[in-house]
Here is the input.
Amino acid sequence: MPIVETVGPKTARSPLPLPEIAGDNALRRFGALPTPSLQWNAEVERETAPLYARVKNVVPPNEWPFFAPYVKAINALKRERNAVILAHNYQTPEIYNCVADFTGDSLQLAREATRVDADVIVQCGVHFMAETAKILNPDKTVLIPDRKAGCSLASSITGDDVRLLRQRFPGVPVVTYVNTSADVKAESDICCTSSNALQVVESLGAERVIFLPDEYLAKYVASQSKVKIIAWKGHCEVHERFTGDELRQVRESDPSIQIIAHPECPPDVLAEADFTGSTAHMIDFVRQRRPKRVVMVTECSMADNVQAELPDVEFVRPCNLCPHMKRITLPKILDSLLHMKEEVVVDPAIAAKARRAVERMIDLKR
Ligand code: 13P
Ligand code: SF4
Here is the structure.
């Protein structure tokens, strides 16, 4: 069933204001800690050797002396702060493999956020992920190491836009991708991620669904379902840059190559893919099939992280960098734990409404 209508701003929006953070409230509650030594020496080398073993295929030996003192300091500080680090699959290998307590796609990170026992969650990902963790944990302290880590999808739509859509399409349920602000989630019936979008849309039993804000994910869902989809013109600035032409060239150069793509890519890109799925599903595909050569049509760090685990698989370009994900670095994570910044806050009334939409998604049977 094709998309029945695509709505949305005709021109690109100016960036939304920076997300709300709570000043230095968390610092006042927890207090600052002194900066630890960041010297590279034999003791640091010995202590971090098991962690280096995890990334040695993708982190050159001459870079490890820079990363290792941060890795050691961050892991010690996590214990001192009773903090956990949740890291998205797009985080760089030294974060993903060496300081994260839990890694995954957006759905896995949201699920994990409901199980966290620690006082503090440090979200190594982008702002909507940290906000989702806060929505699910109103009493915990949620930190993001760089508050400017945004997302072009999240900034493509506001809560006002959703309210207007509801007036224009009365009675049509609204599904929003988790790549949205709390305000947008609060106006939705249910959230979804790239790993459950089809299941969520079909769970509503509706003839028509408003699906926001990713036009290409909406088109992908529409291609798999009989439900009529009303889409929005939001795009991921990373995935929209891939083209069908570049993948056809890759395929011509090696017909046996496996091309696996994220559903935020345009339809002509997905048409060239052997498999389409969320970041976690893409990783599982490579783990299970062990292709000789593969293109992961998504953010570049994904391939590095899987390469660290599976050195026999050859990862072929293209890939694109997400500038927002790349704002998160080891020095900023260290600073976040030392100075309890940046604390993510969500207005409690908005959080309560948004929680309903996120929990409704989490509660869907797998
Ligand atoms: P996943 O939920 O598939 O990890 O996607 C999140 C994201 O931002 C992809 O660009
Ligand atoms: Fe947003 Fe795209 Fe970056 Fe994912 S890759 S966080 S969708 S801009």
The first helix runs from residue 25 to 30. The mean pLDDT is 95.
